[in-house]
Amino acid sequence: MTTAAAYRLPGNVLPTKYDLTLTPNLTDFTFSGDETVTIQVTEPTNRIAVNAIDLEIADAQITLENSTSLTAQNIALNEGAETATFTFGQSIPAGTAALRIRFTGTLNDQLRGFYRSQYTTPEGEERYLATTQFEATDARRALPCWDDPAVKATFQVTLVIPSDLVAISNTLVESETPQDGGTKTVRFAETPKMSTYLLAFLVGDFASVEQRAPNGTLVRVWATRGKEEQGRFAVENAVGLLSYFNDYFGIPYPLEKLDHIAVPDFAAGAMENWGAITYRETVLLYDPENSSASTKQRIMEVVSHEMAHMWFGDLVTMEWWDDL
Fold this sequence. Notes:
Mean pLDDT: 95
Shape: globular
Strand content: 35-45%
Low-confidence stretches: none
């Protein structure tokens, strides 16, 4: 019988923080990535394994506490195990180190990992956006990582995107800097410590409606531009639900904002990414002119379900997938 341990990485190296920069290309449906992972090495080793699949890894380097920098002499990809193993020329001592990995990938059309979603604008134009779906084990399709619900770390995400598009992630935008070539760099605040499958980032022509909860949390509903007004029903009720859950659990929601995002191509009903919940359009958007009364009930069912996950699932997470 295969056990969970067969699918898990060695426990001698663990991440504490990911500093991730991604540059998606919505023309040729690729992305490039550059991440530096702060790691804790518990016993000396010359090999570090991470989860990765459908990524091309250009190189990996590690910087030790004494500022020594080592480049991986070998990068072994195991497609069956969905891992990449970096072998270094000398032993990495116990302690803190910084692992830098440069990589590229494809914005796939499989509705998992970092993928592309196609939709038609109100004007009849075909457009694309980029979005994520990581549960259960598809974060490894977007970045080399410890893709295990029990292995929590913080994430600082930076997206380099076209100037006319919007970027959304788990936390609020920390800075937005214009770049050459009609692009901008959007950097988000560092997340709380969390599981990799709850990380989310989206890039597209989004617009939102918003309200402040009584405790100050910014609550927004995002949709492709032209549909954002259909988020009014959801945002109004999400504000009330947030007050209810804060009181029910006795633990205040810890992030500064809570986004609800309608995605045109989405396999699940919704996904409880911390602070950036993604949904099928049909279970988040309400059109007073055309939607039925039962649509309101369905929206409330799904929004309340996903918001409850901000506590059980996100704040407190199962050890492994068989606890789901």
